[in-house]
Specification:
2 domains; alpha+beta; Arc Repressor Mutant, subunit A; 4 strands
Length: 156
């Protein structure tokens, strides 16, 4: 199947933004995943020549970042469950999310709208507990704030 011409053009546009085109590799991996529906040998083989790399080098980069290995969903909720967040109630937030969405952490809803994943650190210890929905950070969370955020996402 291969990457669409549109995705290849988006990747070239990302590369143009960086002094070293390899700076766009993470964006290219996202774009390839979205275009092909999943990351795997085909995606890595398609992206690699655009960066003068071997497919296994692209796979090594993708395997480092948890965002590339999450259950597919429109809204992936990554809950920090590292020590500072846990001390401030992160486990309770995970239970709240599981209850509201009817799924367990590490899985996605059957309709593919939401997934919940526990992660080690999102770099916001001073504003714990926190989670990230796709690229949106939500900090100083309470169950009330979680309900408000989920309600907003459910209306989309």
């Amino acid at each position: 199947m291969g990457l669409s011409a549109e995705t290849q053009e988006k990747i070239r546009a990302e590369q143009a933004r960086f002094p070293n085109p390899r700076g766009a590799l993470l964006a290219a991996i996202y774009l390839a995943r979205d275009d092909l529906g999943a990351l795997g040998p085909e995606a890595f083989a398609e992206v690699a020549p655009l960066f003068g790399m071997r497919p296994n080098e692209v796979a090594e980069v993708a395997s480092f970042y948890s965002l590339f290995n999450l259950p597919p969903a429109q809204a992936v909720i990554q809950v920090c469950t590292n020590l500072p967040c846990c001390l401030r109630g992160a486990r309770g937030l995970v239970r709240e999310l599981e209850g509201r969405l009817g799924i367990k952490s590490g899985t996605a809803t059957p309709d593919g709208r939401f997934a919940i994943v526990e992660v080690e650190c999102l770099g916001s210890c001073g504003t714990a507990p926190m989670f990230q929905i796709n690229f949106d950070y939500h900090e100083n969370l309470t169950t009330e704030k979680v309900d408000e955020i989920l309600d907003a996402y459910l209306k989309r």
